[in-house]
Amino acid sequence: MKFRIFILGMVLLLLTNIVSAGSQYGTIDVYYNDQLLPGKEVVKPTLKIGEPFKIKIDLKLNQTSILFVKICSLRVGTPYEVITGPSEFDKKLYFESLDPGTYTYEWTLKPTGEWEGGTMPVNIWYQIHNVGEDKPLVQGEFTVAYPYISNEHYQGETPTSEQPASENQSTSKKPSSENLSSPASAPAFSLLTGILALVVIFLKLSRH
Fold this sequence. Notes:
The protein has helices at 2-15, 187-206, and strands at 22-23, 26-32, 35-36, 46-49, 53-61, 65-72, 80-84, 93-98, 101-111, 118-119, 122-130, 138-145, 148-153.
């Protein structure tokens, strides 16, 4: 049974890591606990429930752009909670106009315990528009970390929670595409949504 769970987990990892983090419009450098991840490397740590870890991105924009970005997972419950950072988990950051340059966003998260004894990826989703245009120039999503969450509870010090900055972001003149789910530029996640319900049921039943 554990072997079958492992195989399903590896399939999910492969499906969530096929979207590139770079294009002609910009590039993204990704860090896990302040360590730069080269290329498409995905870290696979073992974490305790409540154990903090950091995800950071350096996003370089090659032109003046509208930007959406969020840290998320597979849209199943709330596997992680943001302790500190610019946005809550699975909530979009929105920037109406950013000049060309490099922008840094960092989140400190912890596993909530919903997936104890299992694995759940931590993803970065992003979308870039020309200023004044609703149609995105590029959209992507990729996996940064694929933690195994043990059934132990973290006993160490946890950073103090902060109010996510995303709640104070301007909501005026947002492109209509912000409220869309997954455009045709991200077919991997349309496929993933179709099999996710079966995987979740299988994993939950396998724990009993």
